[in-house]
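Researcher: Here's the sequence for the chain we discussed earlier.
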Amino acid sequence: MNTSLVSCWPRLAKALARAGVTAEREGHVWRLRREQAEAQLLLPAEFPLELKAVSQLLDFAGVGWPDRPQPVRCACATPDFHPGSLAPVGSIVATDPDVVVPAAIGTDINCGMRLLTTGVSQAQLAAHEPRWIALLTRRLLHGETDAPVPAAAFRALFDDGAAAFLDAVAAQGVWAGADRSRLQRELAGCVGLSRFGGAARHAPEAWVRGTARVRAPDLGTVGSGNHFVEFQVVEAVLDRHVAHAAGLRVGEVAVLIHSGSRGLGFHVGQRWMDRAHESWPAGHRHPASRLYALRGADAHGFLEAMGTAARYAWLNRVVLAEWVREALEATVGAAGSRLVVDVPHNVVSAEHGLNLHRKGATPAQAGQWALLPGSMGDASYLVSGLGHPDWLWSCSHGSGRAVRRQTLRREATRDAAATDWRCLTLREERRWEEAPEAYKPIGPVIEAQEQAGLLRAAVRLRPWRTFKA
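Model: Thanks. This is the structure I predict for it:
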Protein backbone atom coordinates (compact mmCIF):
# COMPACT_ATOMS: atom_id res chain seq x y z
CA MET A 1 0.00 0.00 0.00
CA ASN A 2 1.31 3.46 -0.92
CA THR A 3 2.62 5.21 2.23
CA SER A 4 1.12 8.56 1.25
CA LEU A 5 -2.27 6.93 0.78
CA VAL A 6 -2.10 5.41 4.26
CA SER A 7 -1.09 8.71 5.87
CA CYS A 8 -3.56 10.94 3.99
CA TRP A 9 -6.58 8.66 3.69
CA PRO A 10 -6.26 5.96 6.38
CA ARG A 11 -9.90 4.81 6.20
CA LEU A 12 -9.81 4.60 2.42
CA ALA A 13 -6.50 2.73 2.56
CA LYS A 14 -7.96 0.13 4.91
CA ALA A 15 -11.11 -0.28 2.82
CA LEU A 16 -9.08 -0.72 -0.36
CA ALA A 17 -6.78 -3.22 1.36
CA ARG A 18 -9.77 -5.28 2.49
CA ALA A 19 -10.97 -5.32 -1.12
CA GLY A 20 -7.55 -6.46 -2.33
CA VAL A 21 -6.91 -3.15 -4.15
CA THR A 22 -3.63 -1.27 -4.23
CA ALA A 23 -3.76 2.43 -5.10
CA GLU A 24 -1.15 5.07 -5.85
CA ARG A 25 -1.76 8.71 -6.58
CA GLU A 26 0.32 11.20 -8.51
CA GLY A 27 -1.33 14.59 -8.95
CA HIS A 28 -4.85 14.02 -10.23
CA VAL A 29 -4.12 10.46 -11.43
CA TRP A 30 -4.91 7.36 -9.40
CA ARG A 31 -3.38 4.02 -10.47
CA LEU A 32 -5.48 1.11 -9.23
CA ARG A 33 -4.60 -2.60 -9.20
CA ARG A 34 -6.16 -5.84 -8.15
CA GLU A 35 -5.41 -9.42 -9.12
CA GLN A 36 -5.59 -9.67 -12.95
CA ALA A 37 -6.96 -6.12 -13.29
CA GLU A 38 -5.60 -2.58 -13.35
CA ALA A 39 -6.93 0.83 -14.27
CA GLN A 40 -6.18 4.53 -13.99
CA LEU A 41 -8.49 7.29 -12.85
CA LEU A 42 -8.33 11.05 -13.38
CA LEU A 43 -9.85 12.64 -10.29
CA PRO A 44 -9.43 16.18 -8.90
CA ALA A 45 -8.00 16.27 -5.37
CA GLU A 46 -11.23 17.64 -3.89
CA PHE A 47 -13.32 14.73 -5.16
CA PRO A 48 -13.61 11.59 -3.01
CA LEU A 49 -12.54 8.18 -4.28
CA GLU A 50 -15.54 5.85 -3.95
CA LEU A 51 -14.72 2.25 -3.15
CA LYS A 52 -17.80 0.86 -4.90
CA ALA A 53 -16.91 2.66 -8.12
CA VAL A 54 -13.28 1.49 -7.87
CA SER A 55 -14.41 -2.11 -7.40
CA GLN A 56 -16.74 -1.84 -10.40
CA LEU A 57 -13.99 -0.38 -12.57
CA LEU A 58 -11.59 -3.20 -11.69
CA ASP A 59 -14.37 -5.75 -12.26
CA PHE A 60 -14.84 -4.23 -15.69
CA ALA A 61 -11.07 -4.31 -16.33
CA GLY A 62 -10.87 -7.96 -15.27
CA VAL A 63 -13.72 -9.37 -17.34
CA GLY A 64 -13.00 -12.56 -19.28
CA TRP A 65 -13.66 -16.31 -19.44
CA PRO A 66 -12.09 -19.34 -17.75
CA ASP A 67 -10.18 -20.12 -20.97
CA ARG A 68 -9.39 -16.49 -21.89
CA PRO A 69 -9.00 -14.40 -18.75
CA GLN A 70 -7.65 -11.11 -20.11
CA PRO A 71 -9.31 -9.69 -23.25
CA VAL A 72 -9.19 -6.18 -21.76
CA ARG A 73 -6.28 -4.08 -23.03
CA CYS A 74 -6.79 -0.91 -21.00
CA ALA A 75 -9.24 0.58 -18.49
CA CYS A 76 -9.56 4.16 -17.28
CA ALA A 77 -12.05 6.62 -15.85
CA THR A 78 -12.73 10.35 -16.05
CA PRO A 79 -13.52 12.88 -13.29
CA ASP A 80 -17.29 12.29 -13.41
CA PHE A 81 -16.55 8.77 -12.13
CA HIS A 82 -19.18 7.30 -9.77
CA PRO A 83 -20.88 3.93 -9.19
CA GLY A 84 -23.34 2.56 -11.71
CA SER A 85 -25.60 -0.49 -11.62
CA LEU A 86 -22.87 -2.88 -12.84
CA ALA A 87 -20.19 -0.79 -14.57
CA PRO A 88 -19.19 2.60 -13.17
CA VAL A 89 -20.27 5.80 -14.89
CA GLY A 90 -17.36 7.72 -16.38
CA SER A 91 -15.38 4.65 -17.45
CA ILE A 92 -13.75 3.60 -20.70
CA VAL A 93 -12.52 0.05 -21.30
CA ALA A 94 -10.74 -1.19 -24.41
CA THR A 95 -11.10 -4.85 -25.34
CA ASP A 96 -9.80 -7.02 -28.15
CA PRO A 97 -11.72 -6.30 -31.37
CA ASP A 98 -13.66 -9.58 -31.15
CA VAL A 99 -14.91 -8.97 -27.60
CA VAL A 100 -17.77 -6.90 -26.15
CA VAL A 101 -19.30 -6.55 -22.68
CA PRO A 102 -23.02 -5.74 -23.15
CA ALA A 103 -23.61 -4.83 -19.49
CA ALA A 104 -20.90 -2.20 -19.75
CA ILE A 105 -23.33 0.12 -21.52
CA GLY A 106 -26.55 -1.43 -20.23
CA THR A 107 -29.91 -0.56 -21.73
CA ASP A 108 -29.66 3.19 -22.38
CA ILE A 109 -27.76 2.59 -25.61
CA ASN A 110 -26.40 5.71 -27.32
CA CYS A 111 -27.55 8.00 -24.58
CA GLY A 112 -26.05 11.27 -25.75
CA MET A 113 -26.21 15.03 -26.11
CA ARG A 114 -27.39 17.26 -28.95
CA LEU A 115 -26.69 21.01 -28.96
CA LEU A 116 -28.62 23.47 -31.15
CA THR A 117 -28.17 27.17 -31.75
CA THR A 118 -31.27 29.37 -31.86
CA GLY A 119 -29.75 32.57 -33.23
CA VAL A 120 -31.79 34.67 -30.77
CA SER A 121 -30.90 36.40 -27.52
CA GLN A 122 -32.15 35.61 -24.04
CA ALA A 123 -34.07 38.90 -24.02
CA GLN A 124 -35.86 38.01 -27.26
CA LEU A 125 -36.88 34.61 -25.94
CA ALA A 126 -37.84 35.96 -22.53
CA ALA A 127 -40.33 38.31 -24.19
CA HIS A 128 -42.23 35.29 -25.57
CA GLU A 129 -41.48 32.85 -22.74
CA PRO A 130 -45.04 31.90 -21.68
CA ARG A 131 -45.94 30.84 -25.21
CA TRP A 132 -42.94 28.67 -26.09
CA ILE A 133 -42.92 27.14 -22.63
CA ALA A 134 -46.58 26.20 -23.06
CA LEU A 135 -45.87 24.61 -26.45
CA LEU A 136 -42.91 22.62 -25.16
CA THR A 137 -44.72 21.61 -21.97
CA ARG A 138 -47.34 19.94 -24.13
CA ARG A 139 -44.70 18.11 -26.16
CA LEU A 140 -42.04 17.30 -23.57
CA LEU A 141 -43.99 16.93 -20.34
CA HIS A 142 -47.54 15.97 -21.31
CA GLY A 143 -46.36 13.72 -24.15
CA GLU A 144 -48.57 15.25 -26.85
CA THR A 145 -46.25 13.98 -29.54
CA ASP A 146 -46.95 13.48 -33.22
CA ALA A 147 -44.08 11.59 -34.82
CA PRO A 148 -45.53 8.95 -37.15
CA VAL A 149 -43.06 6.70 -38.93
CA PRO A 150 -44.01 4.24 -41.70
CA ALA A 151 -42.66 0.74 -41.17
CA ALA A 152 -40.68 1.19 -44.39
CA ALA A 153 -38.90 4.22 -42.90
CA PHE A 154 -38.03 2.27 -39.75
CA ARG A 155 -36.65 -0.51 -41.93
CA ALA A 156 -34.61 2.05 -43.83
CA LEU A 157 -33.23 3.48 -40.58
CA PHE A 158 -32.27 0.14 -39.08
CA ASP A 159 -31.01 -1.54 -42.25
CA ASP A 160 -29.46 1.39 -44.13
CA GLY A 161 -28.96 4.29 -41.73
CA ALA A 162 -30.05 7.81 -40.92
CA ALA A 163 -29.81 9.30 -44.43
CA ALA A 164 -32.04 6.54 -45.81
CA PHE A 165 -34.59 7.20 -43.07
CA LEU A 166 -34.80 10.90 -43.93
CA ASP A 167 -35.43 9.97 -47.56
CA ALA A 168 -38.14 7.46 -46.63
CA VAL A 169 -40.18 9.11 -43.88
CA ALA A 170 -43.50 10.63 -44.95
CA ALA A 171 -44.26 14.34 -44.51
CA GLN A 172 -46.72 13.84 -41.66
CA GLY A 173 -46.78 15.07 -38.08
CA VAL A 174 -43.43 16.50 -37.01
CA TRP A 175 -41.96 15.60 -40.39
CA ALA A 176 -44.39 17.90 -42.23
CA GLY A 177 -42.58 20.96 -40.89
CA ALA A 178 -39.06 19.55 -40.70
CA ASP A 179 -36.40 20.84 -43.07
CA ARG A 180 -35.19 17.56 -44.61
CA SER A 181 -32.19 19.08 -46.36
CA ARG A 182 -31.04 20.66 -43.10
CA LEU A 183 -31.41 17.35 -41.27
CA GLN A 184 -29.39 15.62 -44.00
CA ARG A 185 -26.62 18.23 -43.66
CA GLU A 186 -26.62 17.84 -39.90
CA LEU A 187 -25.74 14.16 -40.14
CA ALA A 188 -22.10 15.21 -40.54
CA GLY A 189 -22.25 16.69 -37.02
CA CYS A 190 -23.40 13.43 -35.39
CA VAL A 191 -20.30 11.85 -33.87
CA GLY A 192 -19.97 8.12 -34.60
CA LEU A 193 -23.39 7.79 -36.24
CA SER A 194 -22.02 6.66 -39.60
CA ARG A 195 -20.07 3.82 -37.92
CA PHE A 196 -23.08 2.20 -36.28
CA GLY A 197 -24.39 -0.85 -38.09
CA GLY A 198 -27.93 -2.10 -37.69
CA ALA A 199 -30.59 -4.49 -38.86
CA ALA A 200 -34.37 -4.32 -38.69
CA ARG A 201 -34.52 -7.85 -37.23
CA HIS A 202 -33.30 -6.44 -33.90
CA ALA A 203 -36.27 -4.05 -33.61
CA PRO A 204 -39.81 -4.90 -32.43
CA GLU A 205 -41.53 -6.76 -35.25
CA ALA A 206 -44.56 -4.45 -35.22
CA TRP A 207 -42.32 -1.50 -36.10
CA VAL A 208 -40.84 -2.98 -39.26
CA ARG A 209 -43.56 -5.27 -40.63
CA GLY A 210 -45.57 -4.34 -43.71
CA THR A 211 -46.43 -0.81 -44.80
CA ALA A 212 -48.43 0.48 -41.84
CA ARG A 213 -47.71 3.80 -40.15
CA VAL A 214 -46.10 3.13 -36.75
CA ARG A 215 -46.41 5.28 -33.63
CA ALA A 216 -43.52 4.30 -31.40
CA PRO A 217 -44.89 5.44 -28.02
CA ASP A 218 -41.61 6.86 -26.75
CA LEU A 219 -40.29 8.52 -29.93
CA GLY A 220 -39.63 12.18 -29.18
CA THR A 221 -39.67 11.77 -25.39
CA VAL A 222 -36.98 12.88 -22.98
CA GLY A 223 -36.92 10.03 -20.49
CA SER A 224 -36.49 10.10 -16.74
CA GLY A 225 -33.53 10.52 -14.38
CA ASN A 226 -30.86 12.92 -15.53
CA HIS A 227 -32.24 13.37 -19.05
CA PHE A 228 -33.39 16.85 -20.04
CA VAL A 229 -34.01 19.53 -22.63
CA GLU A 230 -32.30 22.70 -21.43
CA PHE A 231 -32.28 26.26 -22.74
CA GLN A 232 -28.86 27.74 -22.02
CA VAL A 233 -27.28 31.16 -22.48
CA VAL A 234 -23.81 31.44 -24.02
CA GLU A 235 -21.84 33.00 -21.16
CA ALA A 236 -18.24 33.01 -22.34
CA VAL A 237 -16.21 32.20 -25.45
CA LEU A 238 -12.91 30.54 -24.51
CA ASP A 239 -11.86 29.51 -28.03
CA ARG A 240 -13.12 31.99 -30.60
CA HIS A 241 -12.33 29.72 -33.56
CA VAL A 242 -14.48 26.88 -32.21
CA ALA A 243 -17.24 29.29 -31.13
CA HIS A 244 -17.32 30.87 -34.60
CA ALA A 245 -17.45 27.48 -36.31
CA ALA A 246 -20.21 26.37 -33.94
CA GLY A 247 -22.26 29.54 -34.45
CA LEU A 248 -22.31 30.35 -30.72
CA ARG A 249 -22.24 34.01 -29.61
CA VAL A 250 -22.22 35.47 -26.12
CA GLY A 251 -25.74 36.33 -24.95
CA GLU A 252 -27.52 34.06 -27.42
CA VAL A 253 -29.54 31.03 -26.40
CA ALA A 254 -28.62 27.45 -27.25
CA VAL A 255 -30.56 24.27 -26.47
CA LEU A 256 -28.93 21.15 -25.04
CA ILE A 257 -30.80 17.85 -25.34
CA HIS A 258 -29.84 14.79 -23.30
CA SER A 259 -31.68 11.56 -24.11
CA GLY A 260 -31.15 8.05 -25.43
CA SER A 261 -32.72 5.05 -27.09
CA ARG A 262 -35.65 4.69 -24.68
CA GLY A 263 -37.65 1.43 -24.98
CA LEU A 264 -35.71 0.07 -27.94
CA GLY A 265 -32.47 0.41 -25.99
CA PHE A 266 -33.99 -1.60 -23.16
CA HIS A 267 -35.32 -4.18 -25.64
CA VAL A 268 -31.87 -4.66 -27.20
CA GLY A 269 -29.68 -4.20 -24.13
CA GLN A 270 -31.53 -6.58 -21.84
CA ARG A 271 -31.74 -9.28 -24.51
CA TRP A 272 -27.98 -9.21 -25.12
CA MET A 273 -27.05 -9.01 -21.44
CA ASP A 274 -29.14 -12.14 -20.95
CA ARG A 275 -27.42 -13.78 -23.90
CA ALA A 276 -23.99 -13.00 -22.47
CA HIS A 277 -25.01 -14.51 -19.13
CA GLU A 278 -26.37 -17.63 -20.83
CA SER A 279 -23.15 -18.08 -22.81
CA TRP A 280 -21.01 -18.53 -19.68
CA PRO A 281 -19.30 -21.96 -19.86
CA ALA A 282 -21.19 -24.64 -17.99
CA GLY A 283 -19.50 -26.07 -14.94
CA HIS A 284 -17.58 -22.87 -14.12
CA ARG A 285 -18.32 -20.48 -11.29
CA HIS A 286 -19.99 -17.28 -12.45
CA PRO A 287 -18.20 -13.96 -11.83
CA ALA A 288 -19.36 -12.11 -8.74
CA SER A 289 -19.44 -8.87 -10.75
CA ARG A 290 -22.20 -10.20 -13.05
CA LEU A 291 -20.27 -8.74 -15.98
CA TYR A 292 -20.19 -11.18 -18.89
CA ALA A 293 -18.42 -10.79 -22.21
CA LEU A 294 -19.30 -12.02 -25.68
CA ARG A 295 -16.77 -12.98 -28.35
CA GLY A 296 -16.59 -13.85 -32.02
CA ALA A 297 -19.88 -14.02 -33.89
CA ASP A 298 -21.85 -13.20 -30.76
CA ALA A 299 -19.82 -10.01 -30.27
CA HIS A 300 -20.47 -8.94 -33.86
CA GLY A 301 -24.17 -9.73 -33.40
CA PHE A 302 -24.30 -7.51 -30.34
CA LEU A 303 -22.65 -4.62 -32.18
CA GLU A 304 -25.23 -4.87 -34.95
CA ALA A 305 -28.10 -4.94 -32.44
CA MET A 306 -26.54 -2.10 -30.45
CA GLY A 307 -26.23 -0.05 -33.64
CA THR A 308 -29.93 -0.56 -34.30
CA ALA A 309 -30.78 0.98 -30.92
CA ALA A 310 -28.12 3.67 -31.41
CA ARG A 311 -29.77 4.79 -34.65
CA TYR A 312 -33.09 5.03 -32.81
CA ALA A 313 -31.47 7.17 -30.11
CA TRP A 314 -30.29 9.56 -32.84
CA LEU A 315 -33.85 9.68 -34.18
CA ASN A 316 -35.26 10.35 -30.72
CA ARG A 317 -32.95 13.34 -30.22
CA VAL A 318 -33.80 14.61 -33.72
CA VAL A 319 -37.51 14.59 -32.89
CA LEU A 320 -36.90 16.37 -29.57
CA ALA A 321 -34.88 19.00 -31.45
CA GLU A 322 -37.70 19.42 -33.97
CA TRP A 323 -40.18 20.02 -31.11
CA VAL A 324 -37.87 22.81 -29.95
CA ARG A 325 -37.58 24.27 -33.44
CA GLU A 326 -41.35 24.04 -33.89
CA ALA A 327 -41.95 26.02 -30.67
CA LEU A 328 -39.34 28.66 -31.49
CA GLU A 329 -40.49 29.19 -35.03
CA ALA A 330 -44.08 29.59 -33.79
CA THR A 331 -43.06 32.30 -31.33
CA VAL A 332 -39.90 34.14 -32.41
CA GLY A 333 -39.39 32.83 -35.94
CA ALA A 334 -36.06 31.17 -35.12
CA ALA A 335 -35.74 29.40 -38.45
CA GLY A 336 -31.94 29.76 -38.43
CA SER A 337 -31.39 27.11 -35.77
CA ARG A 338 -28.48 24.78 -36.56
CA LEU A 339 -26.89 21.72 -35.04
CA VAL A 340 -23.60 22.27 -33.23
CA VAL A 341 -22.88 18.60 -32.45
CA ASP A 342 -24.64 15.37 -31.49
CA VAL A 343 -22.35 13.12 -29.46
CA PRO A 344 -22.89 9.74 -27.74
CA HIS A 345 -21.58 8.73 -24.33
CA ASN A 346 -22.93 5.21 -23.85
CA VAL A 347 -21.82 2.94 -26.70
CA VAL A 348 -19.21 0.44 -27.85
CA SER A 349 -17.20 1.82 -30.74
CA ALA A 350 -14.58 0.15 -32.94
CA GLU A 351 -11.61 2.53 -32.88
CA HIS A 352 -7.84 2.12 -33.17
CA GLY A 353 -8.15 -1.65 -33.61
CA LEU A 354 -10.03 -1.99 -30.30
CA ASN A 355 -13.60 -2.07 -29.04
CA LEU A 356 -13.90 1.00 -26.83
CA HIS A 357 -16.68 0.67 -24.25
CA ARG A 358 -17.69 4.15 -23.09
CA LYS A 359 -19.99 4.08 -20.07
CA GLY A 360 -20.92 7.70 -19.41
CA ALA A 361 -17.82 8.86 -21.27
CA THR A 362 -17.52 10.89 -24.47
CA PRO A 363 -15.38 10.41 -27.58
CA ALA A 364 -12.67 13.09 -27.65
CA GLN A 365 -10.54 12.46 -30.71
CA ALA A 366 -8.25 15.35 -31.71
CA GLY A 367 -10.41 18.23 -32.91
CA GLN A 368 -13.68 16.44 -32.15
CA TRP A 369 -16.29 18.46 -30.27
CA ALA A 370 -17.88 17.15 -27.10
CA LEU A 371 -20.53 18.38 -24.65
CA LEU A 372 -20.05 18.38 -20.87
CA PRO A 373 -23.06 19.59 -18.85
CA GLY A 374 -22.79 20.51 -15.18
CA SER A 375 -26.23 20.63 -13.55
CA MET A 376 -29.41 22.72 -13.60
CA GLY A 377 -27.50 25.32 -11.57
CA ASP A 378 -24.01 24.98 -13.01
CA ALA A 379 -22.38 25.65 -16.36
CA SER A 380 -22.14 23.38 -19.38
CA TYR A 381 -19.22 23.37 -21.81
CA LEU A 382 -18.60 22.79 -25.47
CA VAL A 383 -15.05 21.42 -25.62
CA SER A 384 -12.62 20.29 -28.29
CA GLY A 385 -11.03 16.87 -27.83
CA LEU A 386 -7.25 16.48 -27.89
CA GLY A 387 -7.14 12.73 -28.66
CA HIS A 388 -5.13 11.49 -25.66
CA PRO A 389 -4.35 7.77 -26.17
CA ASP A 390 -3.61 7.15 -22.46
CA TRP A 391 -7.23 8.08 -21.76
CA LEU A 392 -8.53 6.11 -24.73
CA TRP A 393 -9.36 9.16 -26.85
CA SER A 394 -12.15 10.10 -24.45
CA CYS A 395 -13.30 12.65 -21.88
CA SER A 396 -16.06 12.88 -19.28
CA HIS A 397 -19.73 13.27 -20.23
CA GLY A 398 -20.42 15.89 -17.58
CA SER A 399 -19.62 16.62 -13.96
CA GLY A 400 -20.83 13.35 -12.45
CA ARG A 401 -23.23 12.57 -9.69
CA ALA A 402 -22.10 13.29 -6.12
CA VAL A 403 -25.18 12.42 -4.04
CA ARG A 404 -27.54 9.47 -4.49
CA ARG A 405 -31.14 10.25 -5.46
CA GLN A 406 -32.44 8.41 -2.41
CA THR A 407 -30.44 10.70 -0.14
CA LEU A 408 -31.75 13.85 -1.79
CA ARG A 409 -35.35 12.69 -1.41
CA ARG A 410 -34.86 12.89 2.35
CA GLU A 411 -33.40 16.39 2.32
CA ALA A 412 -34.82 19.86 1.75
CA THR A 413 -33.79 21.51 -1.51
CA ARG A 414 -32.67 25.06 -2.17
CA ASP A 415 -35.11 27.82 -2.99
CA ALA A 416 -35.09 27.87 -6.78
CA ALA A 417 -36.89 31.22 -6.72
CA ALA A 418 -33.61 32.80 -5.67
CA THR A 419 -31.86 31.65 -8.86
CA ASP A 420 -32.05 32.72 -12.49
CA TRP A 421 -32.62 29.15 -13.68
CA ARG A 422 -35.86 27.22 -13.45
CA CYS A 423 -36.81 23.55 -13.72
CA LEU A 424 -40.05 22.81 -15.55
CA THR A 425 -41.46 19.42 -14.62
CA LEU A 426 -44.71 17.71 -13.68
CA ARG A 427 -42.93 15.54 -11.11
CA GLU A 428 -41.77 17.36 -8.01
CA GLU A 429 -39.22 14.65 -7.17
CA ARG A 430 -37.22 15.66 -10.25
CA ARG A 431 -36.39 18.96 -8.52
CA TRP A 432 -35.02 17.03 -5.53
CA GLU A 433 -33.23 14.21 -7.34
CA GLU A 434 -31.62 16.47 -9.94
CA ALA A 435 -30.89 19.49 -7.75
CA PRO A 436 -27.52 21.15 -8.44
CA GLU A 437 -26.10 19.85 -5.15
CA ALA A 438 -26.60 16.30 -6.48
CA TYR A 439 -23.66 16.84 -8.87
CA LYS A 440 -19.97 17.59 -8.64
CA PRO A 441 -18.92 21.12 -9.62
CA ILE A 442 -18.08 21.26 -13.31
CA GLY A 443 -15.11 23.63 -12.90
CA PRO A 444 -12.62 21.11 -11.43
CA VAL A 445 -13.82 18.47 -13.91
CA ILE A 446 -12.92 20.69 -16.85
CA GLU A 447 -9.69 21.94 -15.28
CA ALA A 448 -8.35 18.45 -14.49
CA GLN A 449 -9.00 17.24 -18.03
CA GLU A 450 -7.42 20.32 -19.59
CA GLN A 451 -4.31 19.87 -17.43
CA ALA A 452 -4.11 16.19 -18.36
CA GLY A 453 -4.44 16.93 -22.08
CA LEU A 454 -7.83 15.32 -22.75
CA LEU A 455 -9.66 18.42 -23.96
CA ARG A 456 -9.69 22.17 -24.38
CA ALA A 457 -12.72 24.19 -23.23
CA ALA A 458 -14.23 26.31 -26.01
CA VAL A 459 -17.60 27.76 -24.91
CA ARG A 460 -19.25 28.06 -21.48
CA LEU A 461 -23.05 28.11 -21.25
CA ARG A 462 -25.21 28.72 -18.18
CA PRO A 463 -28.57 27.05 -17.57
CA TRP A 464 -31.76 29.07 -17.90
CA ARG A 465 -34.83 26.83 -18.38
CA THR A 466 -34.68 23.05 -17.94
CA PHE A 467 -37.43 20.62 -18.94
CA LYS A 468 -37.43 17.37 -16.94
CA ALA A 469 -39.98 14.68 -17.74
